[in-house]
Amino acid sequence: MAPHSVVVVGAGQAGLETAAALRARGFAGRVTLVGDEPPGPCHRPPLSKGYLTGTVSAEDVPLRPAAFYAEQDIELLTGDRATVVDRDRRTVLLESGLRLPYGALVLATGCRPRTLPVPGSSLSGVRVLRGLADAEDLRLRLDGPPLRIVVAGAGFIGLEVAATARGLGHEVTVVEPQSRVLTRALTPEVADHVVAEHRAHGVTVLTSRHITVLHGDGERRVRAVELSGGERLDADLVVTGIGVLPNTELAAASGLAVENGVAVDEQLRTADPAIWAVGDCASFPGVPGLNGAHTGGRTRLESVQNATDQARCAAAAICGEPYAYTAVPRFWSDQYTLRLQMAGLTAGADETVTAGDPAGGRFSVFCFRAGRLIGVESVNRPADHGIAARLLANGTALSAATVREPGFDLKRLPRTPPSATPAVPDSPTTPTASPSGSTLQERLTVHA
Asked: What is the structure's pLDDT at 444?
């Protein structure tokens, strides 16, 4: 039997999609969506690209128009933070003092950016990028005379900001402590191609460097970045993109298990049968997408696609139609003219095969582990991305030897009938808020 009311804590992509999916499935009870950011649910991917250049306006950022919430009878409470979950009484206490009863509770609390743990990190001009307020601040700073910008961290957020800032005419240096960029997200073949593109556009990319101190002037504005070894970089602006931390404090204070995120089962339910967790904050069992199977330890993903698919999975369970979350992870990033798309999780691959034209900037890297396809990374090959996601979902047996064959083309492979794994249903009345496959991965974690 469906509960009488659902409270969703967190008004980002996952929270909004949960509320929308409940209504799309015919849930007739009260739905309340609570978020601590005043603007309400917003598209995050444009914030590091189009919003900074002005091609995307503040009016384009909301995930749904204001009328949507009234039409769908979703109570949206913004600028208010959930502080206490009383599991015995099944209520959520908000910072404003409002107490919300729930029959089912969904935690979609997301993540927060890591800050630089070095002296000087509180100086003016040291910024992170997560929400609309952060993006607005950066846009105002970039809309002016050329700046000397240091980007701390060469993840997707950092590199997208670097590409955008460089395109606006600023001097950009990216500092990455690892020996190469995107170590956990991309194969060396694709990561090296990305770095080459940045350097071709005039961005300085420094790897195996640690930021040790940020130096300011008399007005406490950042003016220089000091690296391990004593090297100093002049800086008018420092943008930190060194990853994020899941917001698990509310869950932990409620006595729920936390394992690099709020621990949930295959249906995204916590140990409390009335509480689910979805999106960036959820740590679920195994690796999805391997022909419907979960293998390995626990996984936490940060992407629009994952947030949307998990929201639908949780909504289905709340409505009494549960299925296991097994959606193939899909990510993308746009930098300059590069369209990077990833299907599956390629970390841990023991064999890779490149198909296409790397010199011409159109290729895909097929990643295998123990002879099995586990993921495909594509550069300006959107057809490869879509087909690869389908192959991974169906468990199609594609071998490295096949990819190496002269003239190999994914589009010429025979179609495999869909597996019996329950599909994630599309919402009949509320289409997903972003294009198919359009997701942004800043960080993914797979724990054995």
From this structure: 43
Q: Phi first, then psi: what are they for 68, rounded to 5°? A: -60, -40
What local confidence, expressed as pLDDT, does residue 405 receive?
A: 94
DSSP secondary structure of 130-179: SSHHHHHHHHHHHSSS--EEEEE--SHHHHHHHHHHHHTT-EEEEEESSS
Cβ distance 120 to 214 under 8 Å? yes
Rounded Cα gap, residues 114 and 129, in angstroms? 10
Q: Which amino acid is at 10?
A: G
Mean pLDDT within 29-54: 92
| Six token digits for residue 44 | 């995050």
Q: Which residue has the tokens 């097994």?
A: 326
What tens digit of pLDDT does each residue of 254-284 get?
999 999 999 999 999 999 999 999 999 999 9
In degrees, rounded to 5, the angle at the alpha carbon of residue 296 between the alpha carbons of residues 379 and 258 is 100
**Token output for 5:** 């009311």
Domains assigned to the chain: 5-112+245-318 (3.50.50.60), 115-242 (3.50.50.60), 330-423 (3.30.390.30)
Q: Which of 384, 340, 294, 81 is CA-nearest to residue 185? A: 340
Q: Model-level pTM?
A: 0.89
Please report which confidence band the pLDDT of residue 188 belongs to, taking 50, 70 and 90 as the band edges.
very high
Cα distance between residue 280 and residue 307, in whole Å:
7
Output the six-digit token pair for 219: 């007005």
Alpha carbon distance 304, 441 (integer Å) = 8
Q: Which two tokens stand for residue 264?
A: 């949930």
Instruction: Tell me which H or E stretch contains 53.
Output: helix 50-53
Average pLDDT, the chain: 90
Whole-number Å distance between alpha carbons of 239 and 127: 5
The partner residues of 175 in beta bridges, in order of sequence, read 152, 206
Give the number of other Cβ atoms within 10 Å of residue 192's Cβ.
15
pLDDT tier for residue 446 given thresholds of 50, 70 and 90: very low
Give me the residues paired with residue 86 across strands. Answer: 91
The phi and psi torsions of 176 (rounded to 5 degrees) equal: -125, 125
List, in sequence order, the alpha helices (H) in 218-364.
Answer: 249-253, 304-318
pLDDT at res. 344: 93
The rounded distance, in Å, linking the Cα atoms of 90 and 100 is: 8
Handedness of CA 111, 113, 117, 123 (dihedral sign): negative
Q: Which residues pair with 285 in a beta bridge?
A: 298
| Antiparallel, parallel or unpaired: β 244-246 and 91-94 | unpaired
Give one DSSP letter per residue of 72-112, joined into a string: TTEEEEES--EEEEETTTTEEEETTS-EEE-SEEEE---EE
